[in-house]
Inverse folding.
């Protein structure tokens, strides 16, 4: 029997949101965790806010670290494992960066030697503090930190793909130094897969760290183009899981759907349960899925100001602690899976060919974005009842690679969208499709304002 898919939530404290670290109340945390455990979840992802924990490059506050450990211990008492993010970074449209990186101390987050040393020290310290806790899964380097590296961020810290690769390797090594043999990873938003000039790359996302993390938000142009119930919208999470596999060198590399939610008004509250059911059902049909971690546990209180409107209602519980329909749907998935453990999904045997340019830097990765040919072809195949995956054009003629992934045929976006022949068997020469001019251009990528 394959390992069971993990189910969890990104923990957003009901009282004070992530500012709760300033007025940490363990009893309030315990009440939140009781509610989460009551849904049957087996893990949470937690978010120390970086400036609160490391206000000076040489100071990681001991009291803040003790509070993080207390939260992890409280989770253990309720049967919950914990993944801890480090460099927060960016959450729900707000940036949280320490003063020693901004204004009068403005230094590049990814290339300045002193800043990088300070970041590594911070990650190592948090990991080491949690290394002895059996329910500590590991560290996520930071939450969607790629958004700091390029426009549309209003004040980016520019870096090259080579520099971001070295930075990621350094940060992951620091996590491993603090807590060896844990599941350490990094997590980027979908610009990594969709934005041509984003210096964090698909290859880095799919090869560095213990698992690949994908964050699925359908307000990125998906729901705008395809509607609430369109195949592209309901399969978006599955698409990102399968798209990541094109760049993975390990054919069985696990993929973690680390963030996914139902954003209003594109998914109205009365339809959130249906969207949740469809999204999770399709994601669970992806081989090698490590887990599903919903964004988020609790709504943001209306007493807090200046959040984008969609951020207030993404929780499985209201800010008063009342279970919402989407939460009931997730709890139902957990109960069903425990009552009847599922076999591993069958391999996805049809692979859509992805030609995003150079495999390492993907300078034309916008072909994968909403409106782009790869994206639209995947949606078309899914709507027709197929179970597509993806393969890089450079590997589409590699029989060993295809066999290792269970792929029996490859197909170009042109073929799916009606501009070429039908799917070709895997023993055909490598397919290197040109981007079809008749396919709608990709939706321009804009900065996410979601949970992360």
């Amino acid at each position: 029997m394959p390992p069971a898919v993990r189910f969890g939530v990104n923990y957003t404290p009901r009282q004070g949101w992530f500012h709760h670290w300033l007025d940490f109340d363990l009893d309030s945390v315990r009440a939140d965790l009781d509610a989460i455990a009551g849904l049957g979840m087996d893990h949470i992802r937690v978010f120390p806010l970086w400036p609160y924990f490391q206000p000076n490059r040489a100071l990681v506050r001991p009291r803040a670290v003790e509070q993080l450990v207390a939260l992890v211990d409280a989770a253990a008492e309720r049967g919950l494992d914990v993944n801890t993010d480090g460099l927060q970074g960016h959450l729900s449209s707000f940036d949280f960066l320490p003063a020693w990186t901004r204004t009068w101390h403005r230094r590049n987050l990814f290339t300045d030697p002193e800043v990088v040393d300070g970041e590594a020290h911070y990650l190592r310290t948090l990991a080491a503090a949690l290394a002895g806790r059996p329910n500590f899964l590991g560290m996520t380097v930071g939450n969607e930190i790629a958004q700091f590296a390029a426009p549309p961020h209003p004040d980016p810290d520019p870096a090259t793909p080579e520099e971001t690769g070295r930075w990621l390797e350094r940060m992951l090594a620091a996590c491993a130094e603090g807590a060896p043999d844990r599941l350490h990873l990094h997590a980027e938003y979908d610009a990594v897969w969709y934005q041509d000039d984003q210096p964090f790359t698909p290859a880095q996302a799919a090869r560095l760290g213990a698992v690949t993390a994908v964050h699925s938000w359908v307000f990125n142009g998906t729901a705008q183009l395809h509607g609430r119930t369109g195949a592209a919208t309901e399969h978006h999470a599955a698409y990102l899981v399968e798209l990541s596999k094109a760049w993975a060198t390990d054919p069985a590399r696990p993929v973690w759907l680390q963030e996914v939610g139902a954003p209003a008004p594109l998914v109205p509250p009365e339809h959130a349960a249906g969207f949740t059911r469809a999204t999770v059902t399709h994601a669970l049909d992806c081989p090698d899925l490590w887990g599903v971690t919903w964004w988020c546990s609790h709504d943001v209180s209306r007493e807090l100001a200046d959040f984008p409107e969609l951020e207030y209602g993404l929780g499985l519980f209201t800010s008063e602690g009342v279970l919402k329909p989407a939460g009931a749907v997730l709890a139902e998935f957990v109960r069903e899976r425990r009552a009847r453990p599922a076999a591993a999904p069958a391999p996805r045997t049809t692979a859509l060919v992805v030609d995003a340019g150079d495999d390492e830097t993907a300078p034309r990765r916008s072909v994968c974005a909403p409106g782009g040919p790869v994206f639209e072809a995947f949606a078309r195949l899914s709507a027709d009842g197929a179970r597509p995956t993806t393969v890089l054009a450079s590997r589409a003629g590699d029989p060993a690679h295809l066999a290792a992934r269970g792929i029996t045929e490859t197909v170009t976006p042109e073929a799916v969208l009606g501009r070429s022949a039908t799917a070709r068997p895997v023993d055909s020469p490598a397919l290197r499709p040109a981007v079809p001019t008749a396919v709608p251009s990709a939706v321009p990528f804009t900065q996410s304002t979601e949970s992360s």
